[in-house]
Design a protein that fits this description.
The complex is a heterodimer. Chain A contains five helices and seven strands; from the N terminus they run H-E-H-E-E-E-H-E-H-E-E-H. By secondary structure, chain A is α/β, with parallel strands linked by helices. Chain A has one domain: Rossmann fold, CATH 3.40.50.12280. In chain A, helix 1 packs parallel to helix 5. Chain A is about 35% helix and about 15% strand. Chain A starts with about 20 loop residues before the first helix and ends with a helix. The two termini of chain B are about 40 Å apart. Chain B has 17 helices and 15 strands. A five-stranded mixed beta sheet of chain B has the order 1-2-5-4-3. By secondary structure, chain B is an alpha+beta fold. Classes of the chains: A alpha/beta, B alpha+beta. Chains A and B meet through strand 1, helix 2, helix 3 and strand 6 of A and helix 8 and helix 17 of B.
């Protein structure tokens, strides 16, 4: 039989985490508490790009790098809208993406939330009035929260998600 | 076959004949030569250009450019440092040249959608920019079409759906992927024809994110156009803004102060490093090597924070302007950047050693997703995609802009053309960029970072080397306003390489192959 006793006193195998920002930690802890009580420990997010310039996707992806590592707060990015609580939409809605965006939203189970991330998703941004876009996400989907920015930083996106928790609580 | 020629004049004599009237040639600001030719001359010169291994790097419409009031088509050809722009005065529909120049297939479809241009004998006449919901007869890039919201169809019938190339046969089935992907990825569609696990054919369908960038810029003042250029592709903000500013500055004869060029070049190289690091992290993620991936991601995050510190934006936005830079970067910040890069280099090398001595990494990276060298010229491939397959071309060397003629980057070339070659090449380019940044900070001149000079009327081509390859910008300012802004990012041409690279690979390797290129969807779709 393997004796597990010595391993309890061994040093951790993992290294120290590189760095943590106080602000991210504070927002993250608050989010974790809220997600724990409102969403049963985990908030499943589905990202949807309806016509962004890719900067916002990069910042959403950055949420998973070791500096933010949002999975420890209970936030997971899921592969299918059928598993999602939140639709995180980036970019002004182009005509070429309208149908795909609506199908994605319809595939989500209720209750569901839509968050527009970045100036273009919030209002249509610089593309407002263009022949190729409908406008902001709210022209085709009911938007619960807007996170402005060109693009918003990972910390700003987290702050936005914390604000969404308040909305979710109100809706309950 | 290829004659020994050194100057563009000799090339022109070869292609158009020695007696070609000189008054139909105009030299542009980037050494590009505009040649106004007849239908007959066009038809004669196209096969010659193909035989001489010229690449078609751009084809776009411009209104009121020629003697005729309608749309002129500008064909931009490149061979090493030579740039030739043919402006045919077509009296009948243009002949399609997509059989000789593969890159023309998408270009011609783009011109058809934007301007209603017709090409005789074209083998692909499907829509490109404007998908099925757009109305027929709608040509948004024509001046007669105002840039205003339009009505599109809210649903499409099955028979109106896009006709993909379908391949039939025993055991062949289709796997549609996208436009909404499983990860946090931009929107685009991949249609695989698969036999078992092997990819038999891939058709890439883009332009889901077509948001009308080119039309948007029209009518704006040059200075306001910079933010449009920054929105072409988020992680190429600096490269596209630079191309735009270079074009405007060339037209207006604006001499940008040296210090501004030193700083611009530092920022351009930082953008390259960040882009390459993201690709490398992504490649390691896709082969389930999260330890390596997260370490690359840490370096990238720190570099982005450095961006924010010295320019106020993690994406280097809002600092470029026509005539220089919006703000200076302080001596202290540059010192901090120099120290950061110094430490960065050691950490990066250590990390590379870990990744490249791991057998499972090598096993997955090679020989996966090979781009053949033969594709480079016909598809107008550029950047790491081309250089990992034997190309020696780098826009910074062939068409130097700013101070790249004094700080000549060493062009790295590999020949395997697989995922490992692209990974290794990007690693070498990161080290080379660190060297350039280091030198620039040490040799940074004092002085102003911008000049206030009015923007004049005229047109110019500008080419820059973004992280993904050659980005082309063609700008025409008329009566102080942007009349035409054409952007063609490296991704537009490079996307077609992926259709070749995945053939006979297994479907589970597609994400890895795709990430090893990491093309921009936004920069393609405009």
């Amino acid at each position: 039989m393997v004796n597990v006793f010595p391993s309890l006193f061994k040093k951790n195998l993992t290294e120290d985490v590189p760095t943590r920002d106080d602000e991210v930690e504070r927002i993250g802890k608050a989010l974790k508490t809220e997600i724990g009580s409102l969403f049963g420990q985990s908030l499943a997010i589905r990202a949807l790009d309806t016509g962004s310039d890719n900067a916002t996707e990069i910042e959403i992806n950055n949420l998973s790098n070791p500096y933010y590592d949002v999975e420890r707060f209970g936030i997971i990015f899921v592969a299918s809208p059928r598993h999602a609580d939140v639709l995180l939409v980036t970019g002004a809605v182009t005509h070429n993406m309208v149908i795909a965006a609506q199908k994605t939203y319809e595939a989500m189970p209720s209750p569901k939330f839509v968050v527009a991330v970045g100036d273009d998703a919030c209002t249509g941004g610089i593309y407002r009035g263009s022949y190729a876009v409908m406008g902001g996400v709210d022209t085709i989907l009911p938007v619960d929260l807007k996170i402005p920015g060109n693009p918003p930083t990972p910390t700003e996106i987290l702050t936005g998600l914390l604000a969404l928790m308040k909305r979710a609580r109100d809706r309950k | 076959m290829t004659p020994e020629t050194n100057t563009i004049t000799e090339w022109l004599a070869n292609i158009l004949g020695p007696d070609f009237p000189k008054n139909r040639l105009t030299e542009g600001y980037d050494g590009e030569v505009y040649v106004r030719i007849t239908d007959k001359e066009f038809e004669r010169s196209i096969p010659l250009l193909a035989a001489y291994q010229f690449s078609l790097i751009g084809l776009f419409g411009v209104e009121e450019f020629g003697v005729s009031p309608g749309t002129s088509l500008l064909y931009v050809f490149e061979k090493t440092e030579h740039l030739l722009i043919l402006v045919p005065g077509f009296t009948s529909p243009a002949p399609s040249i997509a059989r000789l120049f593969s890159s023309a297939a998408w270009f011609e479809r783009e011109c058809r959608d934007g301007f209603g241009a017709q090409f005789t004998d074209a083998f692909d006449t499907r829509r490109l920019l404007l998908h099925e919901t757009y109305p027929d007869g709608f040509y948004p890039l024509l001046k007669s079409c105002p840039n205003e919201p339009i009505e599109t169809k809210l649903a499409i019938e099955p028979e109106e759906e896009y006709p993909f190339r379908t391949l039939a046969g025993d055991g062949v089935y289709q796997v549609p992927v996208g436009p909404v992907h499983a990860g946090v990825i931009e929107s685009g569609h991949f249609r695989f024809s698969v036999i078992g696990e092997r990819i038999f054919n891939l058709e890439v369908r883009m332009f889901f994110k077509h948001r009308g960038i080119e039309k948007l810029a029209e009518g704006m003042e040059a200075q306001s156009g910079v933010k449009i250029a920054e929105a072409v592709s988020g992680d190429e903000s600096m490269a596209n803004a630079t191309a735009f500013c270079i074009a405007a500055e060339r037209i207006s004869g604006i001499v940008v102060p040296d210090r501004a060029w030193y700083l611009r070049t530092i920022l351009l190289e930082m953008e390259r490093i960040i882009s390459h690091l993201g690709d490398q992290a992504g490649m390691l993620t896709d082969i389930a090597f999260p330890f390596g991936a997260s370490r690359f991601a840490v370096l990238r995050e720190e570099m982005m924070r450095m961006n924010a510190r010295i320019t106020g934006s993690r994406f280097l936005r809002g600092i470029m302007k026509v005539g220089g830079l919006e703000r200076d970067i302080s001596f202290e910040d540059l010192n901090i950047l120099a120290d950061f890069c110094d430490l960065f280099r050691g950490r990066y090398r250590a990390l590379l050693r870990i990744a490249l001595t791991n057998t499972s990494v090598i096993d997955r990276f090679t020989p996966t997703g090979i781009v053949s060298r033969d594709l480079i010229v016909p598809l107008a491939l550029s950047g790491p995609t081309a250089r990992a397959s034997g190309s020696m071309n780098d826009t910074r060397v062939q068409h130097p802009y700013g101070i790249y003629d004094r700080y000549i980057p060493e062009v790295k070339t590999l020949h395997e053309g697989d995922v490992l070659a692209r990974f290794t090449l990007k690693a070498e380019e990161i080290i080379a960029s660190l060297d350039i940044i280091d030198r620039l900070i040490r040799e940074m001149p004092e002085g102003p970072v911008s000049v206030n000079a009015p923007v004049a009327d005229g047109y110019s081509l500008a080419l820059v080397e973004s992280a993904r390859g050659q980005n082309m910008c063609w700008l025409w300012i008329r009566d102080g306003k942007i009349w035409r802004y054409k952007v063609r990012t490296a991704s537009f041409c490079n996307w077609q390489a992926i259709e070749h690279a995945v053939q006979n690979e297994i479907l589970p390797d597609f994400p890895l192959i795709n990430k090893s290129f990491n093309f921009s969807y936004a920069g393609t779709d405009l």
